[in-house]
């Protein structure tokens, strides 16, 4: 028996493993972490498995066809996202024609399992819904008796059938570490992070109710589950052995929805890092309502470089509509403490959520410019299936298409919602406007260059700047 787990090709630079699946303006490329967990689970069971990341290798569909026809795996596991789903099914058909049993995982197939199975028309044998680490293993071990596997959808006598719901994984320490040894970690890049960077999770789940946020609503649920600090730092030590450059100018990035949510666990991880004498840099996701001077100082002492924060909007009405449960005042207090404790902050902003107006767009851009942020990202709001934002848009006649391949424009993120008085084109324009106003300030550009820490930091900055300028140039040519 052999299993191939594949982050399949789509358009060049497509980043399917982030929360907003698209080719990003900064050409971010993130490792397929969830696929790497599923790979590790199979390996631990002694099942021959290979993990392939086609976008990282710049491999196309012809290469996929040759791979599966030459090596003839028994099972192939493919990821799915909303804008790529038709292409994902095309890839599934290639694998099916090579004789493989095809499983599909990921947010789009999880949100729309019946629809996806029917669209695949026999090319996909089963969909593993939601958190799939152990579901993939169970399908492989029990195939073809799919009715015995919890948490899947499959064709039964020509009709989609769901099996019993699979509970979330309670003991995250029971999971093996991601199978990074199948990948070249130096291929992954994000201009807002030190190079190279390695993703790590200390927990899964988020208790908050932001209407647009995909992962808690579709993949990992609202219940927070935490790994033990010892287990987390064990993984960091393993990753350093696999990729020594992560401590030679690079960093770890804690991809938890909110690393700072449970202060006691965040502190315990920091204390474990210090106890073991690890000289690491790391960044974490945080919320403004978790601002805490003691925590920030402990994070800094353990090697934390940057806090990544979803400020989302500078307008209180928009924050209320998205059920963010944070305020503009929270944002200002957070930044005061971050500056006081000398932690950089990467600010994330979303334009085009319900309640957005020209006035609120202006407030958001002004807020991004005035907070003293280290780096920013602006995104156009996308109502992904499975989220309450999607349901809202559909119920109110705002969704302009459910033809999923129209959710990108030549690989770039496309706005698919028109509001009265706020067009899709205006949302896209505002995103670019915010980025240009932030990054093209002369004072920022000088600071950006003169605060370079090392050759790897210079590489990161120059590559990130080149990627963004390339995006702007292509947009200019398109218009």
UniProtKB/TrEMBL annotation:
Its cofactor is [4Fe-4S] cluster. Pfam families: B12-binding, Radical_SAM. GO terms for molecular function: 4 iron, 4 sulfur cluster binding; catalytic activity; cobalamin binding; metal ion binding. The keyword Iron applies. Residues 192-412 form the Radical SAM core domain. One of its GO terms (cellular component) is cytosol. Residues 16-150 form the B12-binding domain. InterPro entries: BchE-like, Cobalamin-bd, Elp3/MiaA/NifB-like_rSAM, Methyltransferase_Class_B, rSAM, rSAM_horseshoe, rSAM_sf. It comes from the Bacteria. Transmembrane segments: none annotated. SUPFAM superfamilies: Inosine monophosphate dehydrogenase (IMPDH) (SSF51412), Radical SAM enzymes (SSF102114). Keywords: Iron, Iron-sulfur, Metal-binding, S-adenosyl-L-methionine. The keyword Transport does not apply. This is Fe-S oxidoreductase. It comes from Desulfomonile tiedjei (strain ATCC 49306 / DSM 6799 / DCB-1).
């Amino acid at each position: 028996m052999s299993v191939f787990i594949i982050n399949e090709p789509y358009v060049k630079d497509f980043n399917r493993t982030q929360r907003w699946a698209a080719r990003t303006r900064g050409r971010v490329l993130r490792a397929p972490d969830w696929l790497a967990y599923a790979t590790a689970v199979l390996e631990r069971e002694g099942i021959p498995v290979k993990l392939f990341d086609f976008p990282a290798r710049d491999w196309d569909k012809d290469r996929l066809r040759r791979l599966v026809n030459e090596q003839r795996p028994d099972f192939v596991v493919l990821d799915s996202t909303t804008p790529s789903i038709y292409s994902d099914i095309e890839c599934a058909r290639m694998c099916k024609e090579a004789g493989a049993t095809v499983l599909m995982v990921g947010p789009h197939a999880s949100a729309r399992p019946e629809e996806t199975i029917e669209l695949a028309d026999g090319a996909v044998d089963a969909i593993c819904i939601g958190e799939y680490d152990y579901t993939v293993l169970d399908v492989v071990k029990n195939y073809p008796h799919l009715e015995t596997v919890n948490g899947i959808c499959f064709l039964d006598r020509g009709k989609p059938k769901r099996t019993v719901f699979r509970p979330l994984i309670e003991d995250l320490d029971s999971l093996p570490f991601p199978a990074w040894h199948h990948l070249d970690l130096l291929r992954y890049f994000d201009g807002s992070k030190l190079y190279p960077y390695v993703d790590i999770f200390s927990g899964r789940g988020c208790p908050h109710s932001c209407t647009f946020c995909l992962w808690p609503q579709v993949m990992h649920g609202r219940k927070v589950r935490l790994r033990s600090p010892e287990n987390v730092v064990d993984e960091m030590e393993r990753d350093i052995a696999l990729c020594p450059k992560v401590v030679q100018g690079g960093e770890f990035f804690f991809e938890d929805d909110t690393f700072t949510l449970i202060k006691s666990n965040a502190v315990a991880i920091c204390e474990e890092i210090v106890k073991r004498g690890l000289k690491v840099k790391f960044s974490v996701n945080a919320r403004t309502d978790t601002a805490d001077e003691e925590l920030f100082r402990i994070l800094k002492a353990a090697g934390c470089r940057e806090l990544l924060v979803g400020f989302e909007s500078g307008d209180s009405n928009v924050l209320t509509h998205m059920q963010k449960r944070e305020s503009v005042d929270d944002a200002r207090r957070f930044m005061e403490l971050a500056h006081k404790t000398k932690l950089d902050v990467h600010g994330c902003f979303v334009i085009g959520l319900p309640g957005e107006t020209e006035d609120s767009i202006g407030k958001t851009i002004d807020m991004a410019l005035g907070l003293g942020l280290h780096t920013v990202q602006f995104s156009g709001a996308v109502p992904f299936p499975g989220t309450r934002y999607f349901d809202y848009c559909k119920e109110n006649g705002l969704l302009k298409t459910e033809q999923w391949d129209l959710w990108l424009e030549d690989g770039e993120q496309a706005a698919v919602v028109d509001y009265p008085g706020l067009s899709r084109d205006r949302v896209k324009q505002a995103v670019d406007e915010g980025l240009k106003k932030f990054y093209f300030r002369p004072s920022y550009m000088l600071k950006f260059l003169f605060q370079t820490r090392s050759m790897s930091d210079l590489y990161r900055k120059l590559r990130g700047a080149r990627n963004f300028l390339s995006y702007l140039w292509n947009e200019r040519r398109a218009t």
